Amino acid sequence: MNLSFTQTDHKIVANTVTYPRNYKADPRLAGAILTKYQNASGFYNVSAYYAFAKPWAKRRYSLFFNGKVTYNNNISYLTDVLDSLGIDQTVQKNIAKNFVLSQGVRFRVDIPEVLDAEASASYSINQSKNSVAHANIDNNFQTITLGTNGNLYFLKNWTLNYNYSKMIYEGFSGSTNPNILNTYLERRFLKNNIGTLRFSVYDVFSENTGFTSTQNAYAITQSSVNRLGRYYLLTITLRLQKFVGRPPRGMPGGPGGGG
Question: Which residues of the chain are under the pLDDT cut of 50?
Fold first, then answer.
């Protein structure tokens, strides 16, 4: 279990400045939103983490639990320029309270030379609230991840590997819930299995996407990422190991050493 607390004085924070469309002091800034930076105190972070594992039956079966909770107290500023010359301005200090909670569980089976397999599930929630109220800014985002992975050993020198995960997003605009499966079939050969032939397929369903969200008192930014789609890979690996030469002086078997 781990518990931590961090506080930063005079932290560099953002000051988001909004200019009117008729701004004449610098026409380049008319209608613009400009981010400046300044020092401010009040930032702190509290986090706690735990992990628990319970093996049984000579470690053939194992059950794992883990969780984390984080609280961030962030500081930022919002400045509205109200007239065309920049004389009349309002500055608001925003305190963004961000709470993140995650919990996971895994179950693993290890049977030597037969299989090793694992099933897992995790849940996370990300909640933010700003002291400066704006419509549709305070949001809750939730992610559920279900997964399984493992290796199946058969016919002495063959291995079938799989790694599957299902992502379920809640609160993300336009999100999808991708199924991601990577797998490979491997054959070991030559003396002492120094050779390996592997055929891999990555992102079998071609659904590998991701979503992230960052937010402050002024806006929410959601990013959708389409990663590299399905592809295939054939690899041949040879492990060539040969040690030659005499032992270093003073070592057993070398000049001056015992034997």
Answer: 135, 251, 253-259
Range 163-180 burial, b when 16+ CB lie within 10 A, else e: bbbbbebebbeebeebbb
C-beta of residue 172 within 8 angstroms of C-beta of residue 225: no
Q: How far apart are CA 93 and CA 217, in angstroms?
A: 10
Please write the tens of the pLDDT for every residue from 207-248: 887 666 666 555 666 666 666 778 999 999 998 876 555 655
CA distance 125 to 168: 12
Residue type, 108: R
CA–CA distance, 230 with 216 (Å, rounded to integer):
36
Whole-angstrom Cα distance, residue 80 to residue 217? 13
Whose CA is closest to 39, among 96, 93, 98, 99? Answer: 93
Stated length of the chain: 259
| C-alpha span between 50 and 68 (Å, rounded) | 7
Tell me, what amino acid is at 246?
R
The neighbouring-strand residues paired with 196 are 188, 237
- In the prediction, which pLDDT does 251 show? 47
* Predicted local confidence at residue 255, as pLDDT: 47
DSSP character for 173? T
